[in-house]
Amino acid sequence: MNLTEIIGKRLKAMRSHRSWSLDQAAQATGVSKPMLSQIERGESNPTVSTLWKIANGFGVSFSSFVEEDQPSIKKVITSEVDPIADTSGTFLVRPLFPVKPGKSFEIYSLELLPGCDYASEAHPDGVEEYLLVEEGSFSLTVHEMTYSLSAGENLRFAANFAHCYQNLGDTPARLIMMIHYPYPRA
């Protein structure tokens, strides 16, 4: 099963679990009813922004749409994880360690290609992002402040403000992102 199908099945299961119609899901997420329907049928591969809107509307983690059942030990090879991209294809997210019930964090690999200008909506109050830069450089604007980060530099910030990732350089920036929730996820 490919990533588009997995996301579609998870979305349909979450909507069914809540007994929500497509109209109710569209209202909760801000994503159109036709788009939600296409995603559920595996006919549309949602962008990073769309998947975040859906996750926030359902009150679940981003990774809950792509996580697999995991054994107590699992080796993850970043290059083998299918990325989820923004509409421009320059902001790539690879879920490495999805949030699990009772846990309060999830870990991603991010790749910001040259020209990346990705705006993220605010997360719920209390959510923090931790960024660990492995390669390249980029800037992050959060709460009207811009921070330039390069390999070996790291940043933590309250993610309840809109924030923007930009790579205006000529080479990709690669980083690890951990999202920490103020309470264990259900």
Automatic annotation (TrEMBL):
Limits of the HTH cro/C1-type domain: 11-65
UniProt KW keywords: DNA-binding, Transcription, Transcription regulation
Database matches in SUPFAM superfamilies: lambda repressor-like DNA-binding domains, RmlC-like cupins
Presence of keyword Transport: no
CDD domains from the UniProt entry: cupin_XRE_C, HTH_XRE
Span of the signal peptide: none
KW Transcription regulation (keyword) present: yes
Designated name of the protein: XRE family transcriptional regulator
Entries under InterPro entries matching the protein: Cro/C1-type_HTH, Cupin_2, Lambda_DNA-bd_dom_sf, RmlC-like_jellyroll, RmlC_Cupin_sf, TransReg_Diox_bact_type
Lineage: Bacteria, Bacillati, Bacillota, Bacilli, Bacillales
